[in-house]
């Protein structure tokens, strides 16, 4: 895990691990798994908050908890850039990691698949596979999305692909 | 969808909505704090921790330090700075502040230690102390890792309160232990009766402690024992004095020492330093001088003035009354036997007998004729230099020496000058006698008389010897000896008196002779002596000799010298006497030498005369030997005969004279000159005499003696000539004139002999000699065996009848002699008759033969 920075690492180690191996089609087992997902998310969120590192909001978009929506943000040059966030729990979950999408940024960066799915680092997949089923949504966010944002947003902002809302507004006004 | 899930959803919602805490970065905070300080919002010292991530105020630091100290009571600064996480510098500053404010804390060697910590330590120590009864501070210091001074200062405050013990010389002791040691020290010190080095005592005490305490007991510091000892001394529990801090002299010892010295001194009026040494007084002289300021300190002894006074009085008395005083430790009543009589001698002799341990008094002996007065005067072990010293205290000695009444000889002998004079007279006389005898001069008539009195004198000698023996035995048991002597005096008084009263001079030669004889026996030394006397030409009598003489003259002096060194006084005396004796001896010796010379000359003259005579005869007879040169056997017999009859006596005479001459020349007398003349020498005797001659002469003389033993007259003659030359004698050659006169006298002689001869046997050789003289003009000395040969040679020279008569006579003599020799073996038979008849026959023939030959010769 040496490829991740120290804050990520410390956060990751603090997220409680999951134990139930169940996908969305497993009925009660999935419910159990979902509960564990929630606990992990709560822990992760509280860690982030206590470290003054709160950077996302998500919630389950359906009662089964197979689709999640929310937003995530990144502060760059004292400006907050916020993006919409959505992903589905794949049927083979937890063997397969969920594919996180940032639809607003679709087509704006190379590090992205069609439909706004972010390209994760080469390290993510082996790590996930190794830790299945102990890793859950919280881990995917922590390991996948947070570093991606930290790496991509400054480039996008600097290259002008992404503009702050205030700037957009001002340009729109002007 | 169960409730739990919903609940979780809600919770998650809430968590996401909760306000996140605001955090500042460190950099920001540092900047903020800096800004605050800049703006004086913070107006106190703000410290930061070693990690650099914390700010800390001094108050907080102090409170943390105090808390840390109060935890264990003892913290090192280094540890403290680590614990509070503040730089050591700040910690130190705060510590100083804290310690100065709190009297219960102390800062030593980078450690802060509080009082309550020490209290704990003290209690711990106390516990241990009660267990082991003594602990060394060094051990404690190393145990608690503090310096010894600190532990001392800390413990001193708690001694008696927390720690029940006592601190002595770097050790802690319990009172019980201290008292135990005290008992031991007291016991040991009270037990000591002689001066002792305290450290040895302490060592033995420690050994004792080790023994009962086991091996783990520590080495007790001597300082503790010393301090205990000092306190004991101060308290008067043990009595004595301490010198140089280590030498303990118990009071009882010094008391005894003082007492014994005092007792001895007051009893004997003296005390020897060695006695004080034995009492362990190191500097006896100073000690005694300090104690008895009126006493006199000598080299080896300390005397009371009364001794000097006594001695002085005795000496004065002796000198004044012309008494004879001697200091005799061993023979208080050996009186001067040889000196008694009309002479009264005054001698003061101080003698020291240092080596003798017994008979501790020197006795003054005052001996006038019968009275013997003993007085104990001087302690025995006054040695010479002391004697001389003590003498110097006596005014009488000084006075008498000044007025030349007395002479101080050696170091310790005082002789009155009168005694010296008498003694020298005696020795001189003695010397005269010796000189006379030794130089072979005429014997003093007295000494001959002595010879006859040999028995009595030997008796006397044995008497003297006895007294000496008596004296020596008395050495060991003085009282008994003196008693014995007394008895002896009474018993043999008569004998002694007669001897002592008889002419005192008589003793002198006897003893002199004894000495002489002795010296003769030891000829080697004597020879040396004589050469010694002779060589320097001074005729100096040497000291030993004089000493011997003195000893012989006055036997009491010898006995005086008795035990230790008899020569000291004698040599001193002899050295004193020597010059005068030398002079007289020299005079005497020159006279004697002259006499000797005269005698030698006389003797040699006689010898020369005799030698001349005999030598001429010899030559005469030798000539006759020529007749028999063709008959070797007869010649040999004749030569032998000649050597035996004529040569032997002259050789003996010659050798004797030479030996005597030699002796005379060497300065001692050949007293037996007369006797020797009568003696017959055998060859061994000769050889030994010859050997005593000086070397060159001896060789020649030996040749002569050997030739005498041989068969050739010629060889003898040459040897004799050589000897005569060597010894400086003349040998006259025979010339015609002398020969004629000699022959003439010889003929006359023989004729008278023949006419007067009545023995028929003896007549024959004389007749033969006469006939030879007549016929050949030569003198013949023929032994019996050669007679027949001699007769046969006459055959042609004599008338028929005379020759026949001679032959006849000879044969009848031969038969007679044969009969006689046979008769000695066979007993009474006809031989005796036949001898008689033969004799008669011869006797009848005798006048006939006589007349016949006298006639023929005179014709």
UniProtKB/TrEMBL annotation, chain A:
Pfam families for this protein: UFC1
InterPro entries given in the database record: UBQ-conjugating_enzyme/RWD, Ufc1
Keyword tags: Ubl conjugation pathway
GO molecular function terms noted in the UniProt entry: UFM1 conjugating enzyme activity
Cellular component GO terms held in the UniProt record: cytoplasm
GO biological process, one term: protein K69-linked ufmylation
Record: active site: 119 (glycyl thioester intermediate)
This protein's name: Ubiquitin-fold modifier-conjugating enzyme 1
Similarity comment text for this entry: Belongs to the ubiquitin-conjugating enzyme family. UFC1 subfamily.
Entry-linked SUPFAM superfamilies: UBC-like
Coiled coil (residue ranges): none
Described purpose of this protein according to its UniProt entry: E2-like enzyme which forms an intermediate with UFM1 via a thioester linkage.
TrEMBL record, chain B:
Source species, domain of life: Eukaryota
GO cellular component, one term: endoplasmic reticulum membrane
Domain E3 UFM1-protein ligase 1-like N-terminal span(s) in chain numbering: 4-288
Gene Ontology terms: biological process: protein K69-linked ufmylation; regulation of proteasomal ubiquitin-dependent protein catabolic process; response to endoplasmic reticulum stress
Compositionally biased tracts (Basic residues): 482-491
Alphabetical keyword list: Transferase, Ubl conjugation pathway
Family: Belongs to the UFL1 family.
Stated name of the protein: E3 UFM1-protein ligase 1 homolog
Species this protein is from: Vanilla planifolia
